């Protein structure tokens, strides 16, 4: 018995419609993963410090490389103020979709602000470690001391007259305050919105001393416009091999090794697949010879961590820094 041609066509159409229905149901049950469509637009990387600072420069180098890897622009957005808490709060309350990230340094965990509007650990998802570094202690070129013991002796002989400038809620602040505490000296502290402003006043002779990143201060030291008197690293700086470490100068208490590091966070609740991809891309970038060379040239030591390693590291640092800040006499705001 022969089946009419029309019936055959109708049966084929029914089969196709059924297959299409099954596929649509499967798509509804198994939606596209966030990682498969991420990123879908440009990414904001919030740097909670002023433009032109050493931390800003580090973030921009990383953002440029990451833009190429992700296929979308990573835009630096400086939101400075209140020791970095304004920018951190903005990211903590941003949509957790991976398109807003936070570039932090270890001062994020100092605990100097009692109610910043976020929890420095629970409000964020760890994404990637970036780098670590130490600082150079410099004084103005005509300061009457050539080394750290000489600086301490000058401060003891003239209490309250030596001035120290720093960016508020930054590693240089805790370094300077710790030095004052362990040396038992009265050095007047002068806060700035950022370290770059402190360096400008140091060059102008309006303040006497500053702790700064090698990348910023090395040209000024070589030009003779500033005088380097100590390095905070565990070993001497490759760029300034004749410069003693703070430990060699008699003050191992300010050799935190490292005294500064940087990392990237996302708002809590960001999909694990997105965070995982960012961690892989950033670690790959930090392993490339090109980015490593750029960071080393700026005075930074690249640092790669898995997500588990970074989570444990941040938890340990959150326990480490508040007591140090308290011992140094830094007040909670």
From TrEMBL:
- Lineage, top-rank taxon, reads Bacteria
Species of origin:
Rhodoplanes roseus
What name does this protein carry? Tripartite tricarboxylate transporter receptor protein
- Mind telling me which Pfam families this protein's record contains? TctC (PF03401)
Describe the family membership recorded for this protein in Swiss-Prot or TrEMBL: Belongs to the UPF0065 (bug) family.
């Amino acid at each position: 018995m022969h089946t009419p041609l029309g019936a055959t066509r109708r049966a084929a159409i029914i089969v196709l419609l059924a297959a299409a229905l099954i596929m649509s149901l499967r798509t509804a049950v198994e939606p596209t993963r966030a990682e498969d469509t991420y990123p879908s637009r440009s990414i904001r990387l919030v740097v909670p410090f002023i433009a032109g600072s050493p931390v800003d420069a580090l973030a921009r180098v990383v953002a440029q490389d990451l833009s190429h890897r992700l296929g979308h622009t990573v835009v630096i957005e400086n939101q400075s103020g209140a020791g970095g808490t304004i920018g951190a709060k903005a990211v903590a309350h941003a949509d957790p979709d991976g398109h807003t990230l936070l570039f932090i340094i270890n001062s994020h965990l100092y605990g100097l602000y009692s109610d910043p509007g976020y929890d420095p650990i629970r409000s964020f998802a760890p994404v990637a470690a970036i780098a670590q570094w130490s600082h150079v202690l410099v004084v103005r070129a005509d300061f009457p001391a050539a080394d750290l013991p000489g600086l301490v002796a000058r401060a003891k002989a003239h209490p309250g007259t030596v001035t120290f400038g720093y960016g508020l809620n930054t590693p240089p602040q805790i370094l300077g305050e710790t030095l004052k505490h362990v040396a038992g000296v009265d050095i007047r502290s002068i806060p700035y919105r950022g370290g770059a402003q402190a360096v400008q006043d140091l060059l102008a002779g309006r303040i006497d001393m500053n702790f700064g990143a090698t990348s910023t201060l090395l040209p000024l030291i070589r030009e003779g416009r500033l005088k380097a008197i100590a390095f905070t690293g565990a070993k001497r700086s490759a760029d300034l091999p004749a410069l003693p470490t703070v430990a060699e100068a008699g003050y191992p208490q300010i050799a935190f090794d490292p005294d500064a590091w940087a990392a990237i966070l996302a708002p809590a609740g960001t999909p694990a697949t997105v965070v995982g991809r960012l961690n892989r891309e950033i670690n790959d970038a930090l392993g490339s010879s090109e980015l490593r060379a750029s960071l080393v040239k700026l005075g930074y030591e690249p640092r790669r961590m898995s997500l588990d390693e970074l989570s444990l590291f941040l938890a340990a640092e959150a326990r480490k820094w508040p007591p140090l800040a308290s011992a140094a006499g830094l007040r909670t705001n």
